[in-house]
């Protein structure tokens, strides 16, 4: 039936009136999707679309990218700098000069009074590489504090540490294209479809063309676990025992790549001594995976022509995060799966520019994967920046997770927080509040004035967000990609690069050091400093990056394209050019469930949100999919406690309590609950966050809680509503 | 027109695959041939007159959903909302899910659903304004918000929750199949955005590359015989025997081992106590509660005063009470005016009310409105003539009687027919709780009981109650109430037998509104008893009669009001499962109660009006 065609109105379909598309790279996760932002005749950003010819995302975007243009006009943005004497007094608006002078004066006062390291800087993985490099120059070369770190300690620190311990250097050796060559994929602690949907799509595309086994290790039955050929519902915090046991079976059954071990690794003798202790039976009693399955997985992995492992926070956010990464690297080294198509240890990074901060921010040392401990590196950078090499400390200072305890105990008196929100993101919220209260001076530099850390700030500096400025991000597969400036910064907010440059002018030493104003001029310094190094940028320019839709490093001067993989020749960064097989004895030091606190508490991301929701919590078309926090709980466990689907429960741990809405599902085991980490005053009121000894990354995902129904459901709902402003 | 980019990825391009002649329902896939007058015309999208050159332009297109692959990443929904510039509180496409099994043998089945551009678009047929068109181009069912007056009837009849009533903007809008993209040779935005190889699009009954199945069913999907939807599924992975929904609808799906292994909706019973929830009886349909009851009462009174003289009862004629009758008629007219006003204001765009008659051919709404309009006008005329009998003398005595009685009888007939179509409005296969003849007994029953009661009061006030009148009216009231009670009994039985959404509504009736329902039944029984007592009592004691009539009136009115309110709030449509927050009625209520909905980004409108 074709009905009523006569005299019809024209069909109306929304037309956003896009007159120009501008090239950028997504500012959420580290997948590094190329995005074009559509601009209408008024110059407003009204649409987004994936760049068809970009190798990473090939026209696709996840929902966060699809609505990324809405960021520019979202609620809660900072409009002017704000200032106050005490954190408990109201903020007053001020101008940039007053605010920057105040910050400069306070840094000088605190450093003069208590020593250079009494002022700390905690940065991020969210700003651009050029900005990271400039901040590093300011922190290391001008302000001169050794307590300077990034929030990457909460997300990728273990991967960095593990790569360094195994290969002698940071740097993910693989790429997304490896999915198209691999014959076995092992994913540990990665909920790829939810956390990195576009990388998942790349994997799915590879699987559509050619089927290969997918093995997922995760205590939760995620969608990834459901689509896997083998799902290993591992006991939280015991991945290392499993990894050791996989290596045990491989070596025991002679499935290893003897040639590769002999030619490219060191430390086999010590390694085998530890591995011998992890027979599948012993391991099965630790990690909860039966011995037959362990053997089956080990054989499948070892027999594959090329096999790769990917992981995310399930490994990194653990008391053995760094060891877990080394365990993965061990597995790939003994099977000869490093540096070949389809064979790799690929950490799936968290933030859009976590890689940029690792490479260039000087947080853990000096720019371009240089270290403070290396005299030559200190000399090189000191002379490049034009400062005295003795200005640099000879050893790295505190990590983010050690900076806060140092504030607590009074060694650190002042703090500068850049584009991160520790009030929500760090474990044990109550302790973080107490810590921030103690600061003599806190400056928060963020795009959002309502970012919760701002509650304790003395000065707030409104920063531009994402494509309100120009610069580069590096993604998970070492691809440097470009963000063109799309719209002007909101109100009086300023690009972080501008803020760092203006801050430098407040210091005598800063007036001597060159701080280029444009990000492409800063990029020129990166090219020079990286020439001939592992992370060689010298063959890149902003224009070339845009043209190729991102270039992977190393890309030496004169090369047209970047390199897809590292260590293809089996030559590693250690002086002996060999990778190290690290012996990894497993000690279970987690706070395990007991009679008093009988449930494991697990945390993680959901696809619609990013980090502490300062951005996604305000975009209705994202936030609506989980507008308020919730807890996944097993219905059998809930039934015994009288907890109902859609009702509220109260959780207690040795740190505090939290009230949260309950979603009953068999996705989680009867003794485990899961709460997304994005929400302020929720899961981190409970978490312990025991630190990894190598990476200082907190174990967000393993602690013990007790659960009871909230006795007054109505009050619980009110409390939940009042807990956060957005 | 939408443009294909230079670097457009191939997955976004419409494939040119050979399709069979007819679909699985036996309908033709080619909707018109090249010579048809409907062919070779521009679609006139946003006023552009280009003619697209798509070889499959006149074939029915549809979505293809591979449930094995969907990961609920929301990319399809978001791409749709981004393209169509949708506010957070509604969406043309939504992903819901069902889940089953126990840890770690747990399965979640995600389902992405939008408009299915059906062969038999019930939205189009139901729409009183003719805002819908099924196009020869792609078989797209498109809705024009500029025609729509926001009654929301299409949202009732659609089994898939495809049309979205935008209560903020006051009209419906829905999936437009991205016909602008199709004209350019591109798949719709949602299918192009899919990140898991789940959602696809093409000529219906064609299997995308690497896929095997062309199923018309999937667990949770409504009966396809209602609309012949143009969506095909693949679902090969073994599912648990029982699948539950994360939203608040008390339904689950069980595999029918005796049948073909298909999943059937079953009531999901929990240990729920009987509750009152009186405040939750209020809904967006409140004006309809008032409108239907008043209209039924007014028609009832008019019908009875027309009928009464046939039985030799002259208590309600102008001769008996030359002042009383006009007063009552004006009251009725006033009440009906209020009722019509309420029902008009209930529209999203009340100023377009006149479009209600646009679809007399198909829409029960148009027919009901027409019936009520005819009745209302005849009632008005009748009232005028009853008030000013002098007007009649202009026509002479003989014709004046004919005119009065013609008006009375045609008015009664119009009212009677209007109520029939009013009942037809609710006979919707997508709303099983309504789709039962009980609606008819209830509407006609209320017509008699409320009409009879009003006349009884009138008779008392005009002092016209004698035994005959009293017996006549209490008999009428009894008949109305008994019809309603019998209807309710058979309705319960039928709903329980048929299971699914209807039984789930019944379950809500006995739990969430359990006490309210008991009260409603008790009131009905008391009213029935009252009518019997009035019948037997006669008119010996006017005090007792007044007392009895008062009790009858209170129970009758409260009972009808509660009953009608329950009728609206209890219905559970056959729509797809929602998620835990999005498309979860329970969360929507919670967000409104707790004030979460005050934040626009929560995606729930604080007020629906």
Structure in a nutshell:
The complex is a heterodimer of chains A (726) and B (609). Chain A is an alpha/beta fold and 726 residues long.
* Percentage of residues assigned to helices of chain B: 40-55%
CATH architecture of the domain at 82-154 and 352-371 and 397-468 and 489-520 in chain A: 3-Layer(aba) Sandwich
| CATH topology call of the largest domain in chain B | Formate dehydrogenase/DMSO reductase fold
- Apparent shape of chain A: globular
What is the number of strand segments of chain A?
28
Structural class of chain B: mainly alpha
CATH fold-level name of the domain at 82-154 and 352-371 and 397-468 and 489-520 in chain A: Rossmann fold
Instruction: Assign a percent range to the helix content of chain A.
Output: 25-40%
Rg from Cα of chain B: 28 Å
- Give the strand order, joined by hyphens, for the main sheet of chain B: 8-1-9
CATH class descriptor name of the largest domain in chain B: Mainly Alpha
Number of domains of chain B: 3
N- to C-terminal distance of chain A: 48 Å
User: What is the level 1 CATH name of the domain at 82-154 and 352-371 and 397-468 and 489-520 in chain A?
Assistant: Alpha Beta
The biggest sheet of chain A amounts to:
7 strands, mixed
Uncertain spans of chain B, ≥5 residues at pLDDT below 50? none
| Largest interface, chains and sizes | A-B, 76 and 87 residues
Please, how many helices of chain B?
A: 16
């Amino acid at each position: 039936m074709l009905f009523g065609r006569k005299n019809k109105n024209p069909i109306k379909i929304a037309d956003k009136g896009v007159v120009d598309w501008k090239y950028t790279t997504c500012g959420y996760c580290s997948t590094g999707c190329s995005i074009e932002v559509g601009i209408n005749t008024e110059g407003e950003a009204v649409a987004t679309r994936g760049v068809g010819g970009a190798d990473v995302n090939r026209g696709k975007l996840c929902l966060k990218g699809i609505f990324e243009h809405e960021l520019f006009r979202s609620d809660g943005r900072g409009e002017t700098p704000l200032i106050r004497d005490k954190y408990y007094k109201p903020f007053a608006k001020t101008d940039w000069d007053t605010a920057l002078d105040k910050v400069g004066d306070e840094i000088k006062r605190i450093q003069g009074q208590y020593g250079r390291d009494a002022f700390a800087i905690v940065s991020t993985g969210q700003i651009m590489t050029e900005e990271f490099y400039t901040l590093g120059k300011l922190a290391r070369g001008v302000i001169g504090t050794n307590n300077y770190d990034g929030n990457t300690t909460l997300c990728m620190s273990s991967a960095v540490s593990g790569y360094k311990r195994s290969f002698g250097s940071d740097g993910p050796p693989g790429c997304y294209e490896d999915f198209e060559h691999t014959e076995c994929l092992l994913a540990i602690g990665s909920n790829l479809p939810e956390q990195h949907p576009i990388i998942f799509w790349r994997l799915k595309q590879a699987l559509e063309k050619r089927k290969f086994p997918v093995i997922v290790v995760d205590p939760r039955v995620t969608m990834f676990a459901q689509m896997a050929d083998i799902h290993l519902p591992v006991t939280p915090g015991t991945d290392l025992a499993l990894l050791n046991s996989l290596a045990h079976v491989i070596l025991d059954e002679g499935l290893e790549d003897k040639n590769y071990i002999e030619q490219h690794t060191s430390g086999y003798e010590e390694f085998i001594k530890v591995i011998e202790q992890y027979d599948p039976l012993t391991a099965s009693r630790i990690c909860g995976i039966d011995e037959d399955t362990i053997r089956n997985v080990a054989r499948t992995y070892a027999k594959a022509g090329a096999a790769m492992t990917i992981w995310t926070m399930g490994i990194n956010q653990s008391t053995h995060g760094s060891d877990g990464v080394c365990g993965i690297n061990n597995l790939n080294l003994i099977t000869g799966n490093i540096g070949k198509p389809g064979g790799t240890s690929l950490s799936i990074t968290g933030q859009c520019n976590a890689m940029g901060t690792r490479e260039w921010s000087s947080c853990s040392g000096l720019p371009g994967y240089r270290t403070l401990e290396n005299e030559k590196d200190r000399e090189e950078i000191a002379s490049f920046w034009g400062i005295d090499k003795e200005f640099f400390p000879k050893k790295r200072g505190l990590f983010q997770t050690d900076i806060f305890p140092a504030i607590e105990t009074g060694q650190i008196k002042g703090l500068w927080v850049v584009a991160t929100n520790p009030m929500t993101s760090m474990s044990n919220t109550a302790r973080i509040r107490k810590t921030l209260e103690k600061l003599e001076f806190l400056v928060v530099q963020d795009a959002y004035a309502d970012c919760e850390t701002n509650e304790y700030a003395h000065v707030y500096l409104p920063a531009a967000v994402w494509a309100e400025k120009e610069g580069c991000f590096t993604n998970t597969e070492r691809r440097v990609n470009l963000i063109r400036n799309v719209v002007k910064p909101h109100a009086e907010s300023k690009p972080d690069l501008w803020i760092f440059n203006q801050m430098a002018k407040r210091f005598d030493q800063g007036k001597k050091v060159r701080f280029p104003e444009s990000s492409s001029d800063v990029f020129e310094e990166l090219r020079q400093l990286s020439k001939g190094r592992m992370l060689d940028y010298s063959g890149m320019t902003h224009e070339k990056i845009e043209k190729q839709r991102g270039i992977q490093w190393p890309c030496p001067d004169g090369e047209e394209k970047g390199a897809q993989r590292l260590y293809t020749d089996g030559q590693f960064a250690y002086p002996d050019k060999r990778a190290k097989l690290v012996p990894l004895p497993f000690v279970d030091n987690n706070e395990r469930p007991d009679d008093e606190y009988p449930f494991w508490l697990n945390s993680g991301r959901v696809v619609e949100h990013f980090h502490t929701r300062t951005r996604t919590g305000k975009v209705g078309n994202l936030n609506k999919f989980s507008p308020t926090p919730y807890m996944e709980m097993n219905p059998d466990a809930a039934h015994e406690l009288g907890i109902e689907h859609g009702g509220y429960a109260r959780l207690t741990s040795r740190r505090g309590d939290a009230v949260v809405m309950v979603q009953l599902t068999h996705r989680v085991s009867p003794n485990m609950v899961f709460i997304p980490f994005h929400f302020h005053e929720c899961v981190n009121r409970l978490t312990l966050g025991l630190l990894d000894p190598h990476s200082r990354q907190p174990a967000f995902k393993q602690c013990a809680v007790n659960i009871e129904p909230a006795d007054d459901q109505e009050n619980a709902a009110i409390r939940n509503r009042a807990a956060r402003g957005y | 027109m939408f443009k294909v980019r230079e670097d457009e990825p191939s997955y976004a391009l419409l494939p040119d695959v050979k399709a069979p002649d007819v679909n699985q329902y036996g309908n033709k896939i080619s909707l018109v041939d090249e010579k048809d007058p409907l062919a070779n015309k521009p679609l006139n999208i946003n006023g552009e007159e280009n003619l697209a050159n798509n070889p499959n332009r006149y074939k029915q297109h549809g979505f293809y959903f591979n449930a094995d692959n969907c990961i609920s990443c929301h990319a399809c929904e978001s791409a749709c909302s981004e393209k169509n510039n949708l506010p957070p509180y509604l969406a043309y496409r939504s992903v819901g899910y069902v889940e089953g099994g126990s840890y770690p043998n747990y399965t979640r089945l995600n389902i992405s659903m939008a408009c299915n551009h059906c062969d038999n678009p019930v939205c189009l047929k139901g729409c009183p304004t003719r805002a819908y068109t099924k196009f020869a181009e792609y078989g797209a069912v498109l809705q024009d918000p500029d025609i729509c007056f926001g009654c929301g009837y299409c949202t009732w009849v659609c089994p898939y929750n495809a049309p979205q009533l935008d209560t903020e903007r006051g009209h419906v809008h829905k999936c437009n199949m991205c016909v602008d993209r199709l004209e350019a040779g591109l798949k719709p935005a949602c299918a192009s955005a899919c990140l898991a190889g789940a959602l696809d699009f093409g000529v219906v009954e064609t299997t995308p590359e690497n896929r095997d199945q062309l199923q018309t069913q999937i667990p949770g999907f409504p009966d396809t015989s209602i609309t012949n939807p143009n969506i095909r599924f693949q679902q090969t992975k073994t599912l648990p025997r029982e699948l539950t929904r994360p939203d608040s609808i008390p339904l689950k799906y069980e595999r029918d081992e005796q049948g073909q292994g298909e999943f059937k909706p079953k009531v999901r019973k929990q240990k729920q106590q009987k509750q009152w929830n009186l405040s939750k009886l209020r809904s967006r349909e409140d004006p309809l509660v008032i409108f239907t009851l008043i209209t039924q009462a007014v028609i009832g009174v008019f019908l009875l005063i027309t009928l009464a003289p046939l039985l030799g009862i002259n208590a309600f004629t102008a001769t008996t009470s030359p002042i009383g009758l006009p007063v009552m008629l004006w009251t009725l007219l006033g009440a009906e005016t209020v009722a019509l006003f309420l029902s008009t204001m209930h529209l999203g765009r009340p100023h377009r009310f006149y479009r209600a008659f646009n679809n007399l051919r198909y829409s029960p709404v148009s027919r009901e409105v027409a019936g009520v309009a005819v009745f209302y006008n005849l009632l008005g005329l009748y009232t005028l003539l009853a008030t000013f009998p002098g007007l009649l003398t202009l026509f002479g005595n003989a014709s004046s009687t004919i005119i009065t009685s013609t008006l009375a009888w045609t008015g009664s007939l119009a009212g009677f027919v209007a109520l029939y179509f009013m009942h037809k409005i609710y006979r919707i296969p997508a709303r099983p709780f309504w789709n039962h003849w009980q609606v008819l007994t209830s509407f006609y029953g209320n017509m008699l009981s409320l009409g009879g009661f009003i006349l009884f009061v009138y008779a008392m006030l005009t002092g016209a109650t004698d035994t005959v009148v009293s017996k006549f009216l209490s008999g009428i009231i009894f008949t109305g109430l008994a019809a309603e009670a019998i209807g309710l009994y058979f309705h319960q039985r039928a709903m329980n037998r048929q299971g699914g959404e209807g039984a789930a509504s019944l379950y809500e009736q006995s739990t969430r509104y359990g006490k309210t329902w008991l009260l409603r039944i008790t009131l009905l029984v008391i009213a029935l008893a009252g009518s019997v007592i009035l019948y037997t009592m006669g008119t010996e004691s006017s005090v007792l009669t007044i007392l009895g009539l008062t009790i009858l009136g209170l129970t009758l009115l409260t009972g009808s009001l509660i009953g009608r309110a329950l009728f609206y709030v209890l219905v559970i449509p056959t729509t797809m499962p929602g998620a835990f927050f999005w498309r979860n009625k329970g969360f929507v209520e919670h967000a409104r109660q707790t004030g979460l909905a005050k934040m626009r980004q929560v995606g729930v409108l604080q007020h629906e009006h």
